Amino acid sequence: MTENEKKYIYADNAATTRMSQTAIDAMLPYMSEIFGNPSSLYTIGQKAKEALEEAREIVAAQLNASPKEIFFTSGGSEADNQAIRSAAIIGSKKGKKHIISTKFEHHAVLHTLAKLEKEGYEVTLLDVGSKGIVDPEAVRNAIREDTALVTIMYANNEIGTIQPIPQIGKICREKGVIFHTDAVQAAGHLHIDVKEQNIDMLSISAHKFHGPKGCGILFSKTGIPLSNLIEGGAQERGKRGGTENIPGIRGMAAALKEACENIDKNAAHLIPLRDKLIAGLDEIPYSELNGDRTNRLPSNVNFCFEGIEGESLLLLLDDKGISASSGSACTSGSLDPSHVLLAIGRPHEVAHGSLRLSLGEDTTEEEVDYMIRAVKDVVTYLRNMSPFWRDLTEGKRPHVFAE
Ligand SMILES: *Cc1c(COP(=O)(O)O)cnc(C)c1O
User: Fold this and answer.
1) Is 388 exposed, middle or buried (0-12, 13-18, 19+ CB in 10 A)?
2) For residue 261, which of 306, 322, 334, 385 sits 20 to 30 Å off, Cα-Cα?
3) Which of the listed residues 12, 19, 77 should we mutate to test ligand 1's pocket, taking the one with most ligand atoms within 8 A of CB?
4) Residue 274 CA, ligand 1 centroid: distance in Å
């Protein structure tokens, strides 16, 4: 690859996205003219209050929820924490202290569950199989008399696999168990209908669909009493103290509406690019796609390469102008391999050599071609320097993948 071919490609849209102009434009008035506190009684306070409630209506409409079921939070992590804690408290009042989830949830869910275990709850983490998809029947079989909550993500943030949420929702509804889904990777990218899909609680984060960071949504069905994580004033109907982030909430509502209106159009653009990228990387010997080939987010490509160190791969790709990810942002920097890749059965040594490329609506075919060339070059370069790879080629270690 020649120097003048060098470009900048952002391929980490699962980590965060660039804000859309629609979102920025929706925020600006609430940072200047309409800066009032929605709790204030004078005009600019009340205008901010109206803007807040209008945003709630916009968000509710995208999910087929009622505005009073929408609670604004500081992001996906807070929404996950509040949903799970609330359901745990509801359960414990009825003597139910069992929670079902999966091995490959986001840490906002897994770490909350780990804390609840220390507080006396029992947690069952379901397997996700080699394709990274939960079997609804496994959920049914895991539900017990004392199950308080089932929490299963809508789409996985590392490998992009989409879970059978409507089927799981139906089972939970039949069994009378609260069903929460971390829909942070799905919202604005897949069609969500909380009624049709029998979802009781759902978490969303604005910065994963071109909205601002630090802004999220917890949907909680009428009749499910939320517990506070943050005590304070009567904001969010007493369920989340603190002056509302009106600019963020307006930006988030506008971004969600825009994303939801374009779900099919974006998927039609992204799926052929995703599949071209997968086909290109498939040509690299001793590599494998992670997660199901088609039942995955239109934007997600995730591979494991034998004999590669993920961190080196990222640094060399960065040199070629490509922003990508290995494991999740929260775990990179630590030496633990991704819990998601281990959950789908990847051995430690290949789990370390993973690469996630998450495309965006503005990704082009030319960029995909460039990424294929760049990854091939970098993988070859790194393997040529690796003593571990030499052992593999000399037969001193067994290969994990076929050539
Ligand atoms: C990004 C992400 C979160 C965390 O959302 P924040 O708004 O960054 O707190 C939670 N779950 C999943 C699946 C995510 O991808």
Assistant:
1) middle
2) 322
3) 77
4) 22
* Nearest partner of 201 among 160, 230, 235, 169, judged by Cα: 169
CB of 356 shorter than 6 A to ligand 1: no
Question: Could you report the per-residue pLDDT of 361-390, keeping only the tens digit for each?
Answer: 999 999 999 999 999 999 999 999 999 899
pLDDT band per the 50, 70, 90 thresholds, residue 349: confident
Over residues 266-276, mean pLDDT = 98
Task: Write the CB contacts of 132 (distance below 8 Å, at least 6 apart in sequence).
Answer: 104, 156, 159, 161, 290, 291, 292, 340, 343, 344
Question: How much distance in Å is there from the Cα of 30 to the middle of ligand 1?
Answer: 25
pLDDT higher than threshold 90 for residue 335? no
75, 104 contact by CB (below 8 A): no
Which protein residue has the closest C-alpha to ligand 1 atom 6?
76
Q: What is the DSSP string of 190-222?
A: B---TTTTT-SEEEEEGGGTTS-SS-EEEEE-T
Measured between its terminal Cα atoms, the distance across the chain in Å is 25
Q: How far is the CA of 23 from the centre of ligand 1 (A)?
A: 19
Q: Are 323 and 11 in contact (CB under 8 A)?
A: yes
Provide the percentage of residues in the chain whose pLDDT is more than 70.
96
* Alpha carbons 365 and 297: distance in angstroms, whole number: 18
**Residue that the structure tokens 């995730």 belong to:** 302
Per-residue pLDDT, 315: 95
- Catalytic residue numbers read 330
What does the chain come to in residues? 403
The torsion defined by the Cα of 106, 111, 114 and 115, in degrees rounded to 10, comes to -150
pTM: 0.96
Does residue 108 have its Cβ closer than 6 Å to ligand 1?
yes
Decide if pLDDT at 3 tops 70: no
Atom of ligand 1 nearest to the CA of 213: 7
Q: What is the Å distance from ligand 1's center to 184 Cα? A: 6
Contact 342, 348 (CB under 8 A): yes
Ligand 1 proximity of 216 Cβ (cutoff 6 Å): yes
At residue 330, the pLDDT reads 45
> Whose Cα sits closest to atom 12 in ligand 1?
184
